């Protein structure tokens, strides 16, 4: 992939837009930014992209792994709401804003697109100070402080779900093409074979994000013997930091799934947390799910899942109610009812958005073009 390091002068090639993406901290912020970067490059391979992140987040590994150049600015955890705690981070935020200004100047930024996270707010402020057009995209149903502030600095505000930020246009969440173009049924036989699963028995996919989810793991461990004895198969990503589960026939456990497209294709039903990216991907591929929202934070995970659940594409089980017995009561009847699973899959797919990456990319390019006019 072409080098995207900042340079002293913008490219003289009129079509080569220079786009800065601001995201950091968690994969939920970084992954949509990378998916947008891929879409921008597909539309115009000459597009120059710089990603501004923080010093300690997952962007340090995720961004270079996708072939993009990362510059870090000083970052500190931001309070979830406006309070006296904000005063403690103002000095560092000001220094980070000056760092971001220098990066925007050196790169010749024509537009900044932000997805939230600790490093996003200084970049938003730098864009405002340098009069560079700013685009803010919010993935979660309940936004963080960075995007709430950023949304006040620009008319270009987008969200994955309605009612998130005032004045936001709903555009869905940018997804990887391996997911957005997935045909689950066409890939099912290959996917099940790749994991050593039988082709003729229902498959439950269990995952809790990149690090796994201890409570999901514990509940599945208590239910696995009865699930597999009932003729169901389980594909379980338990998380590399968690203990390896006990082996059972019909049960495949992996510390991490690096081919989520194959996992989605192999499955009839998912049991998972409710991060914004997880909800968007499952809806887009039409995989029904039982969502167990993370019980900490500001409650955004339950809200993330609520729209697809309301559309008929899933169920919600509260973390406090999660147990082996609850799983058996909920999952076994679902996995046995192929007609209901098919109906839920259709509802999820109708709710999902597959082309948000290209929608947002073309919007960003249009904003950059207007700035040149």
User: How far apart lie the N and C ends?
Assistant: 29 Å
The CATH class of the largest domain turns out to be: Alpha Beta
Structural domain count: 2
Q: State the CATH superfamily name of the largest domain.
A: Glycogen Phosphorylase B
Average predicted confidence as pLDDT: 91
Q: What is the CATH architecture descriptor of the largest domain?
A: 3-Layer(aba) Sandwich
Alpha carbon gyration radius = 21 Å
Spatial shape? elongated
Give the proportion of residues in helices: 40-55%
Largest beta-sheet characterization: 7 strands, parallel
Find the structural class using helix and strand composition: alpha/beta
Strand content: 5-15%
Please list the strands of the largest sheet in the order they lie side by side.
3-2-1-4-5-6-7
Count every beta strand, where a strand is a DSSP E run of 2 or more residues: 13
Q: Could you spell the SSE succession in H and E letters?
A: EHEHEHEHEHEEHHEHEEHEHEHEHHH
Are there runs of 5+ residues with pLDDT below 50, and where?
Answer: 1-13
Domain Glycosyltransferase family 28 N-terminal: 19-157
Pfam families: Glyco_tran_28_C, Glyco_transf_28
GO molecular function: undecaprenyldiphospho-muramoylpentapeptide beta-N-acetylglucosaminyltransferase activity
GO biological process, one term: cell division
């Amino acid at each position: 992939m072409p080098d995207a390091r900042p340079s002293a002068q913008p490219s003289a090639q009129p079509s080569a837009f220079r786009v800065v993406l601001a995201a950091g901290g968690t994969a939920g912020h970084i992954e949509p930014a990378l998916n947008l970067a891929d879409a921008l490059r597909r539309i115009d391979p000459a597009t120059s992209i710089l990603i501004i992140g923080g010093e300690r987040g997952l962007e340090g590994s995720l961004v270079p792994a996708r072939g993009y150049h990362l510059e870090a600015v000083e970052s500190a955890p931001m309070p979830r709401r406006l309070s006296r705690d904000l005063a403690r981070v103002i000095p560092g935020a000001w220094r980070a804003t000056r760092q971001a200004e220098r990066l925007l100047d050196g790169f010749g930024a024509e537009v900044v697109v932000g997805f939230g996270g600790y490093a996003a707010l200084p970049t938003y402020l730098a864009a405002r100070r340098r009069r560079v057009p700013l685009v803010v995209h919010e993935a979660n149903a309940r936004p963080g402080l960075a995007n709430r502030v950023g949304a006040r600095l620009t008319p270009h505000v987008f969200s994955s779900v309605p009612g998130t930020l005032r004045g936001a246009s709903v555009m869905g969440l940018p997804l990887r093409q391996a997911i957005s173009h997935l045909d689950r049924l066409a890939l099912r036989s290959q996917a099940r074979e790749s994991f050593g699963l039988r082709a003729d028995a229902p498959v439950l996919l269990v995952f809790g994000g990149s690090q796994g989810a201890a409570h999901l793991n514990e509940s599945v461990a208590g239910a696995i013997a009865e699930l597999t004895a009932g003729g169901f198969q389980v594909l379980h990503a338990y998380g590399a930091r968690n203990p390896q589960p006990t082996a059972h026939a019909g049960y495949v456990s992996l510390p991490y799934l690096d081919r989520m497209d194959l996992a989605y294709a192999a499955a009839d039903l998912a049991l998972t947390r409710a991060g914004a990216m997880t909800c968007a991907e499952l809806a887009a591929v039409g995989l029904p799910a039982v969502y167990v929202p993370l019980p900490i934070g500001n409650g955004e995970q339950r809200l993330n899942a609520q729209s697809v659940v309301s559309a008929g594409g899933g169920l919600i089980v509260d973390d406090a109610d999660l147990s082996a017995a609850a799983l058996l009561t909920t999952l076994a009847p679902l996995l046995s009812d192929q007609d209901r699973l098919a109906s839920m899959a259709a509802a999820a797919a109708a709710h999902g958005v597959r082309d948000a990456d290209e929608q947002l990319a073309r919007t960003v390019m249009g904003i950059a073009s207007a700035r040149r006019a």
